[in-house]
Design a protein that fits this description.
The structure holds two protein chains of two kinds.
Chain A: H1 7-38, H2 41-48, H3 60-72, E1 82-86, E2 95-98, E3 103-106, E4 112-115, H4 119-130, H5 139-162, H6 181-193, H7 195-222, H8 227-235, H9 251-261, E5 266-273, E6 281-287, E7 296-300, E8 306-309, H10 317-330, H11 335-366, H12 372-399, H13 405-427, H14 431-437
Antiparallel strand pairs in A: 1-2, 1-5, 2-3, 3-4, 5-6, 6-7, 7-8
Chain B: H1 6-25, H2 33-80, H3 105-136, H4 141-165, H5 169-180, H6 183-192
Helix pairs in contact in B: 1-2, 3-4, 3-5, 4-5
Classes of the chains: A alpha+beta, B mainly alpha.
Chain lengths: ~450, ~190
Amino acid sequence: MTLAPDPATVKRALSAHAAIGLLAGALLYIVCLSGSLLVFYEEWQRFEQAAPPQMAAIDPDAVQRGMEALLATERGRTPTTHFYVDLPVEKLPTTRVITDTQSVHLDAEGNLAGPERIEWSNFLYGLHYTLNIPVAQGLVGITIVGILGMLMIALALSGLIAHPRIFRDAFRLRTRHVGGVALSDWHNRLSVWTLPFTLAIAVTGAVIGLATVASYAIAGRYYGGDTEAFYATMFGEEGKPDPAPAPLPNVAAALRYMEANHPDLRLTYVVVHEPGTAGQHVQIVAEHPRRLIFGEYYMFDSSGNFQGTAGLADGALGQQAAASNYNLHFGNFGGLPVKIAYALLGLALTAVCATGTFIWLGKRRRRGFDEPRLRAAWHAVVWGAPAALALTLAVRLTFGHAAPFAAIFWLGLAAVVLVAVAAAGRTARPVEAAIQQA
Amino acid sequence: MDGAAPLLWIAAALGAAGVAVLRHAWSLPKRSAGWNTGGWALLAVSILASATAEGAWGVAIAALVTMGAALVALAAAALQSPPGRTPVSNRRVGLLPEAGEPKRIGRRFGTFGLVIVAGLLVSMGLATALRGIGGLLGWHEANSNALALFAVPVLWAVLCTVLLMQTRRCDQVVTLLVCALPVVPVLLSGVLS
């Protein structure tokens, strides 16, 4: 008995694989490339803005002072709906206080120390998350990226069916063979050995990207359209809003409680919901060592009294799985060694995307269908995307943080593709003539 | 990774050993059930041991070490590859028309609509139905909801692959309709509730 599919199935799977690959094509390549770089999001932030005060830890009272100082600058403006404190951690040893409209660094005493300037890092984040599509607050972009994640899963499935010998040949890499063999081998070998990684980031990425759309459907059926109620089952509920004015909550007391009762945990974030109102409450996000979850929510009332946890660390399996999705996708669960592994595996996946289309073009060419413009366009995407990213970084270093990085990237890439296609069109000649010359 | 259980590193080493055994098994002139089973068994034991040692986090770490070992073996194969000229596969994927063939643009748009639009709707319907089944079985709400969130892209990817492997339009439509059947009670109960 053999599990190998019959030749007709293999052929149909290959067609499906090629169709999905071409459909996802350039966008999937860009998402993989930007994702490989985004693994180092915190390191990029440090690279981009090295000046802010560095600290290994910050005193709870300094955090409280910093929050009050930032809120004082917003007096008379629309009140912020959330207030965040990004606490210092090993990979990013700075403290930032963040409202709906601004993000400012603190020094170790809690004084405001200048605005955050990480626009390039955020451009890279936006490129990977939403392809920089701002429509509907990024919903369209993130859904497209989610669809690309789904297509990546489908590519893995169809690729496995289309290549019955893919495991048997898993160590065969004929890098010095000519005529397309080397390219095929690189594509298939990297695909098979990065398969667990590919499936992990494709599923988690697709879940992140499609969660909004999926939650509309599920909440529409089971929660009367209330998506917050749907998410609350996994991530915990927000408090009841009460707009009556109130002083800022005692975040310092909450932080001191965590220091005293959970000295083994790494505190990463403070979130104040509805700050400055009677309905406000505090969440502290704490990383649990050697866990995939991004953290556990420790909840406090406005006086800083501990109220309970959301259950991400020890609640239902579904809560733990949902909370593990982000770290598993971004490689934030084992320090720099895991980040480096993720970046390398991500680059391998990027190479798989690039070689897939080259293999398809090569097959067409060998069958007598030379498509110089299409080939030039794909070359332009494969080499132009990293070049355009490098250009945005050069602009950041030369002209500062205010440059329109998304426009530079997309217009730069479009220009490279157009020039490549035009140049290929001018020099194109029938493949028969080329064969005769050869 | 400080403080990780020693069993995790043993599990990671077993994963790397599994790769080495499979490397040997697949280099043999004839298929060897013993070596093959040994290699896969080592990988399975690596997963179990890492899960026992450090849970899901441990499995993720051990898997990265195993993949790293495989890529090292692959790099060795790349460096040792002799020059050669092997006939490359020219299997036609039938994706774009060849000389004289019609372009069938309308059919291509139809396929896109079935795979992407109908595929998404059916997958979301199935995920919603799964959520409902979880509720009926008395699962924790978070478990049913998380399962539904994860189900959408996975079911859609499977559906996408199956639909694109079907060559006849009516087969594709039948597949979608059959997959949509579990959604009907969910919709009906929603209408009736």
